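Task: complex structure prediction.
Instruction: return structure tokens for all chains below.
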Amino acid sequence: MEYIIQIIFSFIATACFGVIFNAPIKAIPYCGAVGAIGWLIYYELGSHGVDEVKASFAGAFVVAILAQALARRFRMPMIIYSVSGIIPLVPGGVAYNTMRSIVELDYALGMQNGMRVFMISGAIAMGLVFAEVIMQILFSMLRKGKTSIQSFVKVKR
Amino acid sequence: MIEKPQQNELAIDCFLLAGRIMMESGAETYRVEDTMLRMARSQNMNDAQSYVTPTGIIFSLGKTQPTRISAISTRVTDLHRIALVNNVSRKLTSHIITLEQAYDELNKIQKTNYFLPIIIQVLAASFASISFLILFGGIWGDMPAAFIAGGAGLYVATMMQKLTRVKFFSEFVATLVVGMIASLALYFGYGTQIDKIIIGSVMPLVPGLLITNAVRDLMAGHFTAGMAKGAEAFLTAFAIGAGIALVMAW
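Output:
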């Protein structure tokens, strides 16, 4: 039950951000699905005691791979799916807490939260870049026919 | 290509317009550079160079060829436009359309407003707010307050943006309204956890995406773009924090 609630609400949140960011209308359900899967991974890892930085990295990694696949499928830029997909992961709440502590002159707590924001957003960016680089290497290898998958496909045809 | 200055002028206009629309709609810096260079190479202009920052684009067709600058002052997130420009560039690079047709299409894209009506965006912000309330561990009873506060936040931000054209001021006023609605809801007994309500309702406004993009640009080696986006994100976060803090202190 807990999982169903999380899936539904992360789907709604991501799809609504797709609307606010003005994604093409037929891409919005896919944006929601990407976001829900990313959040589910983050939530699952988080509930098993993995810290938020590593969980964000894993979530963003999966989001980027899904976004890349959808981008190739529908011939749209990857940013459409990845931007909405990482929305549940981005540390908006922590960024807000940081600034609130700082304007309330609690610099120690603000600094602590600020470092968390930096680490989490760095992890998300790392996840996106890593996934992109790995996919690029994989696709260039596929194009040259160096992997076993490619030879398998060739034999089958 | 060198013998036809007319053609070069058109080409440089076309590529700059494509880059400009993409940058104004919030595309990644490296993708804008890549798109412009791909379009140039497809027209046999192999010496083209582009330098893209969030505030301006410099594009040159080569050593002896013209160079042009395009300044960028407004940046919003408009994924529909990015998809359309990408489509035009894809068609141009695979020689389905000519340069003139591409330029016409880009002009049309720049003139059209692809945003959905404001009421739908406000509703989306409201639903996003209640979703984040639940995702961040809030309780069901706080949902009406978050629904109203989130929608009002986005509405006020958009309206103030139209009125004043100062992004940080409109965000400040919007979070002020969000904070006031949340504390009024608490005062009249329609909410319990003010922190969760506020975090959920300001999520459509916080620059989480901008922060992530800034880090991503920094890692890709676009230090100018990364620093500029980081500064924008910092100012936005500061405006939001100040708006909430004013309500809290009062």
